[in-house]
Amino acid sequence: MSISIAVNGKRHRLAIAADTPLLYVLRNDLQLNGPKFGCGEAQCGACTVMVGDAATRSCVFPVGAVGAAHVTTIEGLGHGERLHALQKAFLAEQAAQCGYCSSGMIMAAKALLDRNPNPDEAVIRREMAGQKCRCGAHNRIVRAIQRAAQELRG
Questions:
Q1: Which intervals hold domain 2Fe-2S ferredoxin-type (predicted)?
Q2: What is the pTM of this model?
């Protein structure tokens, strides 16, 4: 089956089954290695990407369900000299230890800040609770999201 999908501003046409997990398409077919395979059961959040405006666990999301929505991965958020405020804040706050969860954390935080540009600490902790970090960098992650929110508000 041929699927057309827009990822990070580029349209791709792939011969792939519609029920293939989006994560596999991103990593294996498009060589976008920011989203990570963590649990494969939508429990850890390492695979989180944006599908339209929604933070989405790509390990269980079928590529055929993307439809006309645009997919954004960490690579499409910012890179090199043009980092997104969240990426800069994660660096400044040293919010990544091993870094495995970071792309999913940042994408989930983007969805949060898009919905709520001024979340307090309790909201951040509640909204990010489904994103797992085994290193225990949660306090730094919260500070990074607060920093990015402040920067984005101007």
A1: 1-77
A2: 0.94
